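Chapter review: from sequence to fold.
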Amino acid sequence: MLGLDVSAWGMADFRKLKVWQKAHVLAMDIHEVAGTIRAGDLSSLRSQMIRAGLSIPTNIVEGCGQSTGRQFIRFLKIALNSSSELEYHLIVAQRLRAISEPGALALKAQVIEVRKMLHGLIRHITARIEKKRGKRGDETAEE
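The C-alpha cell string follows.
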C-alpha cells in the first residue's frame, strides 16, 4: 500500500472540490425540476432522477473520506455511472414531455460538465498514484 492519504492531497474537505460544488448545484437543480413532474405514472421517473442526481455529489463526498487514492477513484467511478444514469433519465423525461426541452438540455449540459470534471479528477489522482509508485520503484504496490 502506498499510503496516499486523500487528506494529504487537500481533498478531505469535499466542499473545496469544484466538481463537488458543480455536482451539488446539479443535484439541487434536478430536485427542483423533478419536483415539477406531477403525473402519477411518472413518479418512479421523478424518484430515479432525484436519486441519481443526489448520488453524484454523495459519492464524491464518500470518496473524499476514503484512506487511499484508489478507494477515492472507486467512488468517483460510481459518481460517473450515476451521471450517465441521470442523463438517460433526462432523455426519457424530455421524450415523455415531463420536462421542457430547454430545461432538459440545460440539465444535460450540467451533467456532461460534471462528468468531464470527474474524468479529469480520476486522471489526476491516477497520475499521482503512478508518480508516487514510480518514485518508490514499487510496481506491485497497491494504492
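Two observations follow directly from the output. The chain is about 70% helix and 0% strand. Helices lie at 18-34, 43-64, 69-95, 101-136.
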